[in-house]
Structure formats: structure tokens, C-alpha cells
């Protein structure tokens, strides 16, 4: 019978005979290295209430800093992820306090 188990196996993963393309090390995307000025400007925008950028603002910042909009978008994603790691329970009703809430 050709059911879901025939394609995915008993644990939900594709069977070993499926063709999955793998990138070689030569095809890796280069990591963007931001200058101190670029980091400072992006941090300034981010810390002044722009945790989520609209497309027009992302394009403006990218143009100002000589970057592509997708690089700015990825930097914002990374900054939000870093914020979550620093204060994972901040703002949740868990009974824990953020460092900015201490008295």
C-alpha cells in the first residue's frame, strides 16, 4: 500500500532513498561584516523603538549605510533574537522580573 508510512517511514521523516540536495562548502553565503559605523547606526535605530522595520525604513537605512535591504532585515532579526536570549521571560506573566524592572 502506498500510504504516508511508505513515503515518510514510521517517524515522519522522508525515507533514505529520497533525493535531498546538499550545498557544498564552496556554495556557502559569505557572512556580512558590518563596520563600527554601520553597527552604531543600526543599534541607534533599533534602540529608539524600531524593533520591527517597515520596508520603506529598511530601504532608507540600507541606502544610508551602503547595504542591501535584506542585510538590514537579517541584522534586525538577529538583534531581536539576541534580545530574547538576554531577557527570555521579560514581559510575560511568569513572576520573573526583567533587569529594567528592579527597584
Features:
103 residues; mainly alpha; 45% helix; 0% strand
How would you describe what is shown here?
It is a single chain. The protein is 45% helix and 0% strand. It has 103 residues and is an all-alpha fold. Helix 3 crosses helix 4.
**Structural class, judged by helices and strands?**
mainly alpha
The ordered H/E elements are HHHH
Helix content: 40-55%
The overall pLDDT, averaged over residues, is: 74
Strand content: under 5%
| Low-pLDDT residue intervals, each spanning 5 or more residues | 9-21
Q: What is the rounded Rg? A: 21 Å
Measured distance between first and last alpha carbons:
66 Å
Bulk shape: globular
Outline the biggest β-sheet: none
What is the total tally of β strands? 0
Tally of helical runs: 4
Amino acid at each position: 500500500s502506498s500510504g504516508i508510512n511508505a513515503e515518510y517511514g514510521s517517524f515522519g521523516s522522508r525515507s533514505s532513498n529520497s533525493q535531498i540536495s546538499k550545498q557544498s562548502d564552496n556554495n556557502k553565503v559569505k557572512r556580512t561584516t558590518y563596520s563600527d559605523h554601520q553597527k552604531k547606526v543600526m543599534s541607534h535605530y533599533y534602540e529608539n523603538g524600531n524593533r520591527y522595520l517597515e520596508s520603506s525604513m529598511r530601504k532608507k537605512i540600507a541606502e544610508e549605510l551602503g547595504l542591501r535591504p535584506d542585510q538590514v532585515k537579517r541584522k534586525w532579526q538577529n538583534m531581536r533574537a539576541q534580545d530574547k536570549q538576554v531577557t527570555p521571560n521579560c514581559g510575560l506573566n511568569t513572576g520573573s522580573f526583567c533587569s529594567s524592572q528592579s527597584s
